[in-house]
Amino acid sequence: MNQKDFIRFGVPLGEATRRATDFVSKFILGGGDKSRLHEEVTAIVANPSGFVNDRLRGEFARALLKAPPPPRAEAVKYRQWGDGLEHEAVMQMEKACLLPVSVAGALMPDAHVGYGLPIGGVLATDNAVVPYAVGVDIACRMKMTVLDLPIRDLEQKRDRLTRAIEAETRFGVGATFKHQREHHVMDADWSVSPITKRNRDRAWSQLGTSGSGNHFVEFGLFTAHGPITSADRELPPGTYVALLSHSGSRGTGAAVCDHYSKLAFSQFPDLPSELKRLAWLSLDSHEGQEYWEAMQLMGRYAAANHALIHQHIAANLNAQVLLDLENHHNFAWKERHVVDGVEREVIVHRKGATPAEKGMLGIIPGSMASPGFVVSGKGNAESLNSASHGAGRTMSRKAANEKFNWKDVNRLLRDRGVTLISAGLDEVPMAYKNIREVMAAQSDLVTVLGQFDPKLVKMAPGGERPED
Ligand SMILES: [Zn+2]
User: Fold this and answer.
1) Which pTM value belongs to this model?
2) Every domain of the chain and the residues it spans
């Protein structure tokens, strides 16, 4: 029997075929009847579980059970928002839609190449979670609070506001607080996964910090076009001072992603190379459940980071909070959607995409010198209730570092009235798409309720390894 025969009998390529070959040799060497080989292989393929403890047939049977289901012959259909998206990002989305567990998808107008699923990719799966479709920085998120400070402070008290940011959060890879912050998230059960258990102390020391990459804390002018209601508070239309932050679950979230993506890879060593980075964990498996619980904890932890940053900065400035709102963007949710005409529960991954269920508030930032927007979702079913999570990069960090110089950037910042406390050249506005074009491309996904214009921006200084 050769490989062609195995394919004919339904043996998947890779490890299963290798073990099938071993079985055939051992069977013949052991004096087995050659004429019965077809019958033997057919029986094992039909019911591998029945042979896992068989001395001669066990390895082959176990390899069959571990073999990944074949990719879909045809990609799941998905809609794309925005024109001129990076070809490679679109290809990544196409591949994700070939996964046997994929059931629906959508590509947002800020899409660009990511690891596995593109940033701006939305992927719905059947009872499975894909660690690289959630992303490395699990539960990366946005939070905005509107403060009762006079608007003139944005011009006249920039030093005071700068000191508040510098005192109340930390930037940079591995940044920690010497005197740990307190938050009840540290009382949660961190033993849901060995990774969160092992990293609890590290997570505590990083509580309230911001990290690196595209993470920021900034003050700006917020204009509410109409009344905005969030968490029982209503903000009347007008202009305000607001604080906006973007960061995630720091080193612990990255460790969770690293561990469970490797576990997923190891479960499917024979996935075709273009799908390898999209290896998934079944939610029926122990590993899948552990990842899901760890992801939920990282969601609470990332939210705690933002809560502390905002609470401490407001207290530092003796300011009252008039409104606050927030959303994750690197996360997976159990949601009900209509798939192939039938409503059912699916796992929706939004990697660098904002949840935009009807009436749900979200924040879509621009760049350090371009406006961000507070939006209300329209619940567009084709987008799986999603929107972009920002403007999206136009070039890699490396290309931006090579192309731009601070002299030009500083001129642009001056023109737009933005003071930059620190950042890397790879985060300059010119490295991003035009946010207004991105918003125009998703007018059927969200309604704009207000605009945030950055005035005082802090990011990790240049040269840091990005964590986003
Ligand atoms: Zn983010």
Assistant:
1) 0.90
2) 3-66, 141-250+266-327+355-459
